[in-house]
């Protein structure tokens, strides 16, 4: 199943994404006399995503096929961020050796190079990435995002998928010149407003044949700047979840942004994208606040 948060009637509304359009959760509830939460944040928080997906796989998909009146088609600017207030956003630095080489760094091997971001960084598809006045060199990085579905602690690596709600596309930004001043400035360099775009869709694990074979691409102005497959991560998704769940309890809605195959210097007027094989791409324009 694929879910999105979309702008309809000037409101952010949860929708199921199908090849022939979208079905709003509010319309689904009215049509089938159900009571599913009508925001993705609440669906995750209440632990009902797995139940919704089970209904969808067993009977819901076929039932929706009979209700063409519930569908609406693509519209410009329809996608919003998947949700606004994840409990935690974990970022993983230098998780591909090629990206570490971009920064003249060595990829960590003892433990992931983790950092956290505030939810005030969040934007959605089509929203502006804003280069801050304080930065002369900001970079953008395409990444695979993992969304946690269950409250969990000390997750064994072999059980990692049991706690995953889904996957999504991410663009993570860094004020690289600030970071280079001092590595202790990592949090600040990652935390400017508009520095975390995610969506447009949450893709449940059953929709992904092999996470390790997913190709992640950083794309600028339609050109692939860097790409790699997940199996080339130093710390793959199972290890990231196992490790971070030993550090702290993971909560439904937590996001782990798993690292980029390569960052690209962005400038005013650029168009950024994250492409992941089999996913709908994430696109954001770039605005330099020093030029606006």
List keywords for this structure.
292 residues; alpha+beta; Fumarylacetoacetate hydrolase, domain 2; 2 domains; eight-stranded mixed sheet; five-stranded antiparallel sheet; 7 helices; 18 strands
CATH names the topology of the largest domain as: Fumarylacetoacetate hydrolase, domain 2
The value of Rg in angstroms is 19 Å
What number of structural domains do the residues give?
2
- Largest sheet entry: 8 strands, mixed
Write down the secondary-structure element order. EEEHHHEEHEEEEEHHEEEEHEEEE
Low-confidence stretches: none
Examine the secondary-structure arrangement and name the CATH architecture of the largest domain.
Alpha-Beta Complex
What does the model show?
The protein is α+β, with helices and mostly antiparallel strands. The protein has 2 domains: about 1-70, no CATH class; about 90-290, Fumarylacetoacetate hydrolase, domain 2 (Alpha-Beta Complex), CATH 3.90.850. Helix content is about 20%, strand content about 35%. It is built from 7 helices and 18 strands. The chain has helices spanning about 25-30, 40-45, 50-65, 95-100, 175-180, 185-190, 235-245; strands spanning about 1-10, 10-20, 20-25, 70, 90-95, 115, 120-125, 130, 140-150, 165-175, 195-200, 200-205, 215-220, 225-230, 255, 265, 270-275, 280-290. The strands form 3 sheets. Strands 5, 6, 7, 9, 10, 11, 15 and 16 form an 8-stranded mixed beta sheet that branches. The chain has a 5-stranded antiparallel beta sheet with strand order 4-3-2-1-12. Strands 8-18-17-13-14 form a 5-stranded mixed beta sheet, with no helix packed on it. The longest helix has 17 residues, at about 50-65. The protein is globular. It starts with a strand and ends with a strand. The mean pLDDT is about 95.
